[in-house]
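Look at a sample.

——
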Amino acid sequence: MGKTMNQMFIDMAKAKEIGVDIAEIRLDYLSTFNPHQDLQTLIKYSTTMLTLFTYRPKWEGGEYEGDDSIRLDALKLAMEAGADYIDVELQVAHEFISSLDEKTREKSKIIVSSHNYHATPSLEEIGDLVARIQSTGADIVKIATTAVDVTDVARMFQIIVHSQVPFIGLVMTEKGLISRLLCPKYGGYLTFGTLEEGIVSAPGQPTIKDLLDKYNLRLIGPDTKVFGIIGKPVGHSKSPLLFNKAFKSVGFNGVYVPFLVDDLAKFLATYASADFAGFSCTIPHKEAALKCCDEVDPVAKLIGAVNTIVRRPSDGKLIGYNTDYIGAISAIEDGLRGSGKIYQGSGSPIAGKLFVVIGAGGAGKALAYGAKAKGARVVIANRTYERARDLADLVGGDAVTLAQLETFCPEDGMILANTTSIGMQPKIEETPIPKHALSAYALVFDAVYTPKMTRLLLEAEESGAAIVTGVEMFIGQAYEQYERFTGLPAPKELFRETMSKL
C-alpha cells in the first residue's frame, strides 16, 4: 500500500522476508503512477513472490477517483507485463474480460471481486453472487462481506466449502476475523495479512506475523480442530498465543482463535459441528455459559459460572467446567508447599487453614468454593457486608467487612486471596488491606495480573508472607483447560516461558 514506488519496494522486501506467497500491490495507493514504466519495475522486483495487482476505485472502497478506462487499461498492461494475478470488480468484469485478446487472457489469473461494507447477505444471496461472478469468466471468485455478528462468518464458510471454483471468502471487521484465520481449514484460496499492525486495506486484517507465528496458519488443514476464547472484548487475550504455541510444540492438530461474541447461545447454536471442539469463556459470558451447556461440573454449578466448555466427541454435548478456581487453588497450594514452611501429609496444605477471600463476585465465589472443597475454613471480606454474608452463607463460612480486615487476626498462618480489581492498572497505588495487617498471613494471593506485582503482593512479601501472582492463576487455569481440550498433559514449562516473555 505504498504511496511511492520506493515505499512499494521497501514493503515488498519486508513481505518477502516474512515469507508471503503473493504480494498484493494496490496501485490505487500510489500518488504518482506511470503504468508503462512502473508495472514492469514492480514485476521485475518481485522475483520470488507472485504478484497480484489491484487498482481499486473509490466506488468499491478503494482510493482511485479517475477515469475507469485508464484504470482498466493499466490492469491490462499489468497482465501483458507478466502479473500473476489481477483483481477486477464485478461491476466492470464482463466488459473488461471480454475486451481481452486470447494471448493476454492466458497470461494472468483473473480474480473478480465483490465487496459489501455493510453486512453479510443470506446464504442464497451469496450463492447468487458467486454465480454472477463465475459468469464473467473469472478464474477466481472473491467475495468480501462485513460481520455484524460473529455468526455471519458461518455462511461464508458454508459457501467456500461447497464452491467448485477457487474461492476467496473474507468477512471484514473484528467479528469476522475467524474468516481470515480459518481460511485453510475451509479451502479458501488465500487469506490477506498486513505488514504492520493498524495499517490495513480492509477492516479486521491481522498481521502476516500473527497469521504465521501466532495462529500457525501453515499448519491448519481440513481436519484441524477449532478452539477459542469467547468474550467481549477479546482482542487483548493472551490465550491464543499460549495455546497455539502449545499445540505446535506437541504436534496437536488444533488452532485457538478469538471469538468476539454478543450472544453466546446464538454463537454455540451456529458453530455446533464437532470441528468446534472447545471454548474458553471470559467476561461477560461466564454466567450465560452455565445455561448453554448440556451438562455442568458440580463445582462450576455451585460457583454459578463456567469458563471452559468442551464438546464431548461421543455425542457432541457441551460440558461446562470452571478452571478458574482450580488454577488459583493449585497455585496457592504450590505456593504453600514451596514457601519453606513444612506442610506434611498427602492432603492439601490449605486443609484446616483460615482462608480469607476478599470480594464476593464471581471470582470470589470460585475461590471460596475451591478453598472449602480443600477443607479450609472460609472467611469472606467485602466492602458491603450483606454481599459477604450472602456468599459466606452459601459456602458455610464467616463474613467480615473490608474495613474489619485491618484488625482481623484470630490466628497466625492464615491465607489471603484478593479477587477484586483493587490495585489493577492504572490504580496501582491502591491495596485492599494495609501493610500492618499482613503479618498474620502465611501466604497472600492476588488475582490481578496487570501489574504482575501489585502493591498488595509487594507489601505482603516485605511482611514475610509467601506470595502467588495472578499470572500463576492464569497459567494454572490454562493448564487445566489445555488438558480438557486435548486429553494431553499440559506443557507447563512452555506455558511459563511464554507468559514470562509477555
Notes: The chain has 20 helices and 18 strands. The two ends are 30 Å apart (CA to CA).
